[in-house]
Amino acid sequence: MKKIISGKELRDKTCEAINILCDTVKQTLGPKGYNVIIDHSNFSPFITNDGVTIAQNIESDDPVLGGIIELAKEASIKTNENVGDGTTTTLVLLQALINNGYALLDSGKNSQILKNELNLGLKEILTILNNMKKNITQEMIEMISTVSANDDEMGKLASEVTSKVDNKSAILIKEDFHNILKVNYIKGYSCSVSHPLEYYFQDKNSFSFQNACVLIINDIMENVESIDFILNDIIDDNRCLILIAKDFDSYFINEIMSLNLDNKVNCFMVRLCECGLRERYVQKDIEILTKGIIVENIQHITNANVGVVKNLYVDREILRLDFEVDSDISDYNNKLIEDLNKCDYFDLDFFEKRVAMFTQGLAEVIIGAPTKVEVHEKRMRFDDALSSAYASKNGYLLGGGVSLLNASAILNDDTDGNIIWKKALLKPFEQIMENSALPISEISSEIVNSNYSKVYNVHTDSYENSSNTKIIDAFDVVVNSLTNACSIAVMLLTTNSLVINEHVNNMNKVNEYTEL
Question: Quick one: average pLDDT of 427-436?
Answer without folding.
Answer: 96
